[in-house]
Amino acid sequence: MRNKLLASTLFLAALSPFTAAMAQTPDPAILTPERVFANPSLSGPVAKSVSLSPDGELVAFLRSREDDVDVQDLWAAPIGAGEPFKLIDARALVPDAGELSEAEKARRERMRISARGVVEYSWDEQGRYILAPLEGDIFLASREGGTVRRLTETEADEIDAKVSPKGSYVSFVRDQDLVVVDLASGAETPITDDGEGLITWATAEFIAQEEMDRDTGYWWSPDERYIALQRTDESTVDIVPRLDITGGGASVVEQRYPRSGRPNAVVELYVRDIVGGGRVKVDLGDNTDIYLARVNWSADGRTLYVQRESRDQKTLDLLSVDPATGASRVISTQRSNAWVALNNDFKALDDGNFIWSSEETGWKHLYLYNREGRRLRAITRGDYPVKSLNGVNQTTGDVFFTASMRDGKELPIEQQMFRASLRRTVAPVAVTPGGGWWSASLNRTGTAYVGNYTDLGTPTQSGLYRADGTFVRWIEENRLDASHPMYPYISRRGNVTFGTLPSHGETLVWQMTTPPGFDPSKTYPVVMQVYGGPSGGGVKRGWQGATNQLLTEAGYIVFRLDNRGEGDRSAAFKQALHLRMGQPEIEDQVLAANYLRSLPYVDDSRIAMMGWSYGGFMSLMALTEPDMGLASAIAGAPPTEWSLYDTHYTERYMSTPQANADGYAASDAIPRLPNLTGRLLLMHGMADDNVILENSTRVIDALQASSVPFELMLFPGQRHGVRGNERQLQQWRTYLDFLDRTIGTRAPAARD
User: Fold this and answer.
1) Does residue 603 carry a catalytic annotation?
2) Annotated catalytic, 365?
3) What is the average per-residue pLDDT within 584-594?
4) Which residue out of 64, 298, 462, 613 is catalytically annotated?
5) Angle at the Cα of 235 (from 230 to 241), degrees rounded to 5?
6) Domain at 88, CATH number
7) Which residue is catalytic, options 124, 345, 455, 688?
8) Regarding predicted confidence, which is higher, 108 or 286?
9) Domain assignment of residue 304, yes or no
10) Structure confidence at residue 17 (pLDDT)
11) What is the pTM of this model?
C-alpha cells in the first residue's frame, strides 16, 4: 500500500506511450485503477441490507467504513427527525478479527459475502432487538437504550444466528449442532447433540446455499413453540480432492462435492417442540433423492409448509405438515417440461390463505390460494414476469411486487414496484416512478417501504417511503455533488445507449457505452462484457460501475447483450438453453458481434470479450467460435465441462451426463480449442470450491499439449471471486494490459 502510487506509475509507464504520458502528466478527471480500488469507495455512502423495523419506526442498514471499504458497521435511523447513528461498531467490539472457521468461510462464499465486520443481521418480529453475528460471535442490540450485549465469546464460530419471532430466544449453529439461548436467563440449550463428521444439523447444505437461494437450515414458528430443522448426511456425496493453494503453501481438501449425475446429500426435516421437548420427523416421502426447496410456517404456527422438489426439477410439490406429528400431504403441485423455477414468493396470510407464484402461463405471476392449496384467483396477469413479492398490507388487501413492466408489457431494462389486490384481479398500479431501477423492502404491515433507486445519472440512493410512494426521508441520499468521491470523474463518463436485436422470436436487449470524446467518424475497439447464463441480467438503466469507466478511459466501446437464457424474462426466453448450454447463448452473441461490425465506428478486427464464472465459460466458447471472430478474450473461473459442476444447477438446465451426453459434449470447451480465433487470458482462484480449478487446468493442459500460446493469471488463496482492493487492483491492471496488447494501442491491428 505504501508504494502503490510509485508502483502504479512504473507499471503504466511500461504499458505504452499513451499510458506513459498519462502517468507523467495525469489529468485529475481521468479515473485510474488505483483510485477505483482505494478508500473511500467511489460508490459513495451506499446503504446495504436495508430493512425497516417490524413497526416501521426505525431503519437499520449496513455501511462500509470510510477508512476500510471491506469492513461494515451496523447503522440505524429513525423514520422521523434525527440523523442516522452507528448501532454496532465492528472495530470497537472486535478490534482484531481472527480467522473464520472453514464452515463460515464456505457459507459466506455461498452468500457472496466478501466484507468483514457486520455482514448480516436480523430483527425479532416485535422490533425490540437486532441480532448481529460479528466475526464468529453474536451481539444483540437493544432498541430501547441502544445497548449492545455480547451473547457469545467462544473459540468456535456461531453461524446463522437468529432472534426468535417474539424476542424470547436467540438461536445459532455451533459445531454442526443447533443451540438456543433463553434471553431472560442466559441459559443455553442444545437442540441437537450428534452433529459431527458428515452429519450436520440446521445448516443449509452446499447445494441449497450455492444454487437454491436458501441460506438457512432451520425455521422458528411464529409463536416460538416449534423449530423446524434439517438434518444433512453427506456420506453419500463423492469426495472430490481439491488443492487449496495459498501464498504460503498448499493443502488437499477432501471436499464433498455433488457433481452432476452423482449422489446428493440426504436431507431430512424434523420439528422440535420447544415447549414439550419432543422431536418428530417430517414425512417427505419414500424417495430420499429429492431437494428440500423451501420451508414456511402458517401465520398461526399450526401448519408447516414445505416445498419438495424432484431430483429432475420438473415437479415442485407443496406439502402441508402437522408439526405435532410430522404427517404431511401434498396440497399443490407445479410441473414443467424443462424445470420449475424456485422463488421466495410464498407468503402465509393471517386468514389462513397464502400467496404463491407460478410460471404456468409462460410468465411468473402471483396467485392466491386457500389453506387447502386450492387456487382462488390470480393476483397478477399479463405479458411480463413478476420479479418478487415485496409484501402485503392485509388490512387494505394491497399486494406489492417488483416487475420490469410498463403498461402491462415487459420492459427488461427498467424495474419498479407495483401495487395489486388480494381481493380481485386488477391492473397493477405503479408505486415508484419509472425511468430507472428500483428495489424495495416493505415492513411487516405493508404500510411503508425502503426504496433503493438508481439510474444512469444517479448512484444508488436509499429512502424511506409510505406505501403510496410518498417520500418520508433519506436513509442514504448519496447525492452526486462536489463532496461525492465519484464527482471528480463524472465529466468523463461515457454516453450509454440501449437497443434491441431480434433472435428466434425473442427480443434481446443491449447497452453500449462509448469512450469520452467519442467521434463517430473514427473507429474504436470494443470490449463485449458477458455473463450469459441464467441470472437477473446485466442490461439496465442503472448506475454504471467504476470499472466500466476504466475500459472507456482506455479507449474501448463497452457493449453488453443479455442473450436468451439470461435475465428474469419469460419461461420460453429462459428455457431456450434447456439441454444445450453454450449454444443459443453463443448464437445470440454472434448476432451481437455482427451488429457491432455493421457500425461504422467499430473496428471489426479489434473486438474482445471478458467474463467471469458463466461469463468465463461464454468467453471461452466465443473465442472458439469462428463466426464471432474475436481478437482476444478474458475467461475468469470458467466451467469448462459441465459434468464437473454441481447437481442442482447443472441438471436443472442440462439433465444428467448420462441422459444428455450430446448436450454435455457440445458444451465442453476442450474439443473447441483448435478453433481459437485470438489470444486468451485465463484466470482462476487457486482455492475455488465452486468452479474448481480442474476446470482451468484441463484447458491449460490441452493448450500446452498443442503448443498453443496463451496467458494465465492464478490467484493463490482466492475462491470463486477475487477479494480485497490490492488483488482486485492487480486483476484490473492485468485486464487493461492484456486488452491494450490485443485490441488497444499496442495491438498489431492498431500499429498497422
Assistant:
1) no
2) no
3) 98
4) 613
5) 120
6) 2.120.10.30
7) 688
8) 286
9) no
10) 42
11) 0.91
